[in-house]
Design goal:
single chain; 869 residues; five-stranded parallel β-sheet; 12 strands; 5% strand
């Protein structure tokens, strides 16, 4: 467009906004041009007035002012600064505020030019018209102003050469509109505001971008209080904070609601909060006279092409909070290339954000606006779009599930237009992690709209991944919903699958009765359906539960039945986990050779299947067995190998388990710092996952480390918390371990009666469970208590009993502890020869198993030796 009779006149008026136009400044965070009025005398300072209620933006102001100050001080070219952001975020207010702070440094003029890229009932200012106005303000007679754009731009640059000028170009459409208006002087400052990211300006003129986000919560609350003129203490606590959250921390929205509240003395902030919370259309509440948040958004949408506007509208139908180009292509029924092109353009227009590369998210209020627009479309059209995106997530999740599930289900949904790369466990894990919130949102949508088959399908595709990563309380709720949905659909197999997964997770979170009920129900359905694989899988889960409830005989019986089915069906996939569980039963009954044999067989199966996760499980079991047989070096090596594999596949529970056992081995080798670090890392993961048994186990061993490092208060606290959890879970073996450590700590602090009570209670539990190793440990501790009490005879009796139990349990460590204690009793009885013989026997064991106690025992033997003459 060339300069017209009205164009230059309008452009001149834009330069005189301070004197000749009505301006609404929403708390100094939104500048809105209303309508032109007759021309006013030209002045060299046309900055709109600032506002006393300008709030926040300290970091952005420091960045701008600091950049300009640095350039002025160094005599360098002052860079162009481009402030961009979404509608209503306060770009203009920031530019005007900074302009007033810096105007004295630019004595040759301060100009404000509204380019009207997004103004109601206005077309964007043509660069030729803008130059006409700029040259007129600089005193060029109209007859001497050239006609062509290039000539006007050249004259403008020539007249500004050597001057120090401040120019604010507000509301720019794109870099082509701004570029001809740039003054040629190196000492001039140009501030540009735009709803678009002016990347062309950055490339051609090295402009510095300053993206403006919504206000931080604290600044947003301060802005509202200042504008509303209210004391927020008169409202319910947190009312202001909730209000600005519902405003999306957007300055324009905050300003409009504050303007509604200020003249109404009987209204409260809580009234506005309730109005926003109850309405189906928040945006309808955010207006004042002819100014509205929705209208500001519409101005941006009006600049989009028809295809892009439809694409953006349909994004509002997405159930989740963010999406990538693949999901957008499925939702909007377009190609992947077109989806990327549309999303990148919307990002440049600040209609979507890109917090992570390739992932797009709308501001809450813009999302509300797009949903309002989408709601105006025919219901059938909306339903088809949502169905497409649900199909997309179910299909890709099923593909990714192949890397996590023991028996993955084939995709039930049709293939979408484009599918991301989920080949390989790492890619599948990365995709699941990025899309988990969206898939959960899809399950919520399916449940709310009665799409029960969809809910079952999505949950089945998520089950294995969520079992690996947690948090389990969320997953449990999902499996309960899936079981109910399958029942409503008459899908008995789907219900059994959901109940099986539910039972496994309830076991992990410590709800053993609930786990048993869910698994028994699943077992009944599988048997009625004749589904032998399902039956075997549930038997395996029930056996794992039996290991935790001390029903070891029943657990081994179930495992043998499961293994028989797996072998009949030649199903090695199920046989591996069953052998792992069988090894647990065996080491709990102190059959370490049998445990090692089962784990070796499991390891062969996993390696032949290329199952890295299963291999890690088997290595973890081997590490535990080696630890329990006092092979510390072998245990550490194997556990570290398992930990590396768990990291590789992203299995957080496995990582926590490996760290737990590494912590216990490090403690046994007296590397207390490494032990504490490993245990605390494990504890944090267990707490995040909701694994109460893991928390209790870690606290128990952490308490032992604290006892060994003389942090007795910490040891009592950790062991006490562990005992409480074990008691809640009815986990007797754990209770005995916690009581054992409490008894030792209380002996060390001199509380002998309580120490004796705790140790006796622990001994009774170990006897009831048939744990000879546990009994040997407690008998050694009780013997030490008797020795400290002065009852040498009783102490010797206890040590001898501990030695017999240790031999029966194949525990060289506890045998050596007993021998060392017997030597102390012999010394009390002044039997130095006997003490020396016992110490030499203990030392030989310590040295054989690589125990750190060897150093201490060798020193004791040296002290017993007669002096050399």
């Amino acid at each position: 467009m060339t300069a017209s009779a009205n164009g230059p006149l309008d452009a001149e008026r834009h330069l005189h906004a301070q004197d000749s136009q009505r301006i609404y400044q929403a708390a100094g965070n939104q500048y809105i041009y209303d309508r032109p009025s007759p021309a006013a005398p030209m002045v060299t300072n046309t900055l709109p007035r600032g506002t006393a209620t300008f709030t926040g933006r300290g970091d952005e102001i420091r960045t701008l002012v600091g950049s300009v100050t640095k350039s002025l001080g160094a005599g360098e070219v002052i860079p162009i600064h481009a402030i961009d952001g979404m509608p209503g975020v306060g770009k203009t207010a920031l530019a005007i505020h900074v302009g007033h702070q810096l105007k004295d440094r630019f004595p040759d003029g301060q100009l404000f030019l509204d380019l009207h890229a997004h103004s109601a009932n206005q077309t964007p200012v043509d660069p030729a018209d803008a130059l006409y106005a700029l040259l007129s303000v600089d005193g060029v007679p109209p007859a001497q102003i050239p006609q062509s754009l290039d000539a006007r731009a050249a004259l403008w640059r020539a007249r500004m050469a050597g001057k120090k000028l401040l120019v604010i170009m507000d509301n720019a459409a794109e870099h082509g509109q701004v570029e001809p208006l740039l003054p040629g002087s190196a000492g001039s400052l140009v501030l540009i505001t735009s709803r678009r990211r002016l990347t062309g300006l950055r490339v051609r003129h090295a402009a510095l971008a300053l993206p403006l986000d919504t206000l931080p919560p604290e600044q947003a609350a301060t802005l509202f209080v200042r504008l509303a003129g209210r004391d927020p203490t008169g409202d319910e606590p947190g009312a202001v904070e909730e209000l600005v959250r519902l405003c999306g921390f957007l300055p324009l929205a905050i300003s409009l609601l504050a303007a509604k509240l200020r003249p109404e003395p009987l209204w409260t902030v809580t009234n506005l909060v309730n109005d926003l919370a109850e309405t189906q259309d928040r945006l309808a509440q955010m207006h004042a006279e002819d100014i509205a948040v929705a209208a500001a958004f519409d101005l941006s949408l009006g600049k989009l092409s028809g295809a892009r506007r439809r694409f953006f509208r349909d994004l509002g139908l997405h159930p989740g909070a963010d999406l990538d180009a693949y999901a957008a292509a499925a939702l909007c029924r377009t190609t992947l290339a077109d989806a990327r092109r549309h999303l990148d353009a919307l990002y440049d227009d600040h209609l979507v954000n890109q917090p992570d590369h390739g992932r797009y998210r709308m501001h809450d209020l813009i999302r509300d606006h797009t949903r309002n627009l989408a709601a105006r479309q025919p219901a059938a059209q909306r339903e088809r779009a949502v169905r497409r995106v649900l199909d997309y997530y179910e299909y890709v999740a099923s593909l990714a599930d192949r890397h996590f599930a023991v028996r993955p289900r084939p995709p039930s949904a049709g293939a979408p237009p484009a599918v991301p790369d989920v080949s390989g466990a790492a890619n599948a894990m990365r995709w699941m992690r990025a899309e988990l919130a969206n898939i959960l949102a899809c399950t919520a949508y399916a449940g709310a709209h009665g799409e029960y088959a969809r809910l079952v399908g999505l949950t089945a595709a998520l089950a294995a991944y969520l079992g690996l990563t947690g948090p389990w309380h969320q997953v449990i709720a999902l499996h309960r919903a899936a079981a109910l949905a399958a029942e409503r659909q008459g899908d008995r197999a789907g219900r059994a699958n959901a109940l099986q997964h539910l039972g496994a997770l309830l076991r992990r979170t410590g709800d053993y009765p609930g786990a048993g009920q869910a698994l028994d129900a699943a077992l009944t359905i599988y048997r009625e359906l004749g589904a032998r694989l399902g039956e075997a899988d549930v038997l395996n889960e029930l056996a794992a539960l039996g290991c935790l409830t001390s029903e070891l005989a029943g657990a081994e019986e179930k495992l043998q039945a499961a293994l028989d089915i797996y072998r009949d069906l030649d199903d090695r996939v199920g046989a591996g986990p069953a052998l792992n569980n069988l090894s647990t039963v065996r080491w709990l009954t102190e059959d370490y050779g049998g445990a090692t044999e089962a784990l070796g067989e499991a390891l062969d199966i996993y390696r032949s299947l290329g199952d890295r996760l299963g291999e890690a499980h088997a290595l973890l079991g081997l590490g535990v067995v080696r630890q329990m047989t006092d092979d510390y070096r072998g245990a550490i090596r194997t556990l570290q190998e398992a930990l590396a594999m768990y990291r590789e596949v992203g299995y957080r529970l496995g990582q926590a388990n490996a760290r737990l056992y590494l912590g216990t081995v490090r403690r046994q080798t007296e590397d207390y710092q490494a032990a504490s670090e490993a245990l605390r890392d494990a504890l944090a993961t267990y707490r995040e996952l909701g694994d109460r048994l893991g928390v209790a186990n870690t606290l128990k061993h952490l308490g032992i480390v604290q006892r060994m490092t003389e942090d007795y208060a910490g040891a009592v606290e950790a062991s006490g918390e562990a005992y409480t959890i074990y008691h809640d879970l009815d986990h007797e073996l754990g209770q005995a371990g916690a009581l054992e450590n409490l008894g030792v700590v209380r002996r060390l602090i001199g509380d002998f009666p309580e120490a004796a009570r705790d140790l006796r209670q622990a001994l009774l539990i170990y006897r009831r469970l048939g744990s000879r190793l546990g009994q040997a440990e407690v008998m050694n501790h009780r013997a030490t208590l008797f020795l400290q009490w002065g009852d040498t005879s009783q102490a010797m009796t206890q040590y001898e009993a501990a030695r017999r139990l240790a031999l029966a349990a194949h525990s060289p460590l506890e045998e050596a502890h007993a021998l060392e204690g017997m030597a102390r009793c012999a010394l009390r009885q002044e039997n130095q020869d006997g003490a020396g013989a016992l110490l030499r026997e203990a030392l030989a064991i310590y040295q054989r198993i690589g125990a750190p106690e060897a150093v201490r025992t060798a020193a004791q033997l040296k002290a017993l030796a007669p002096p050399q003459h």
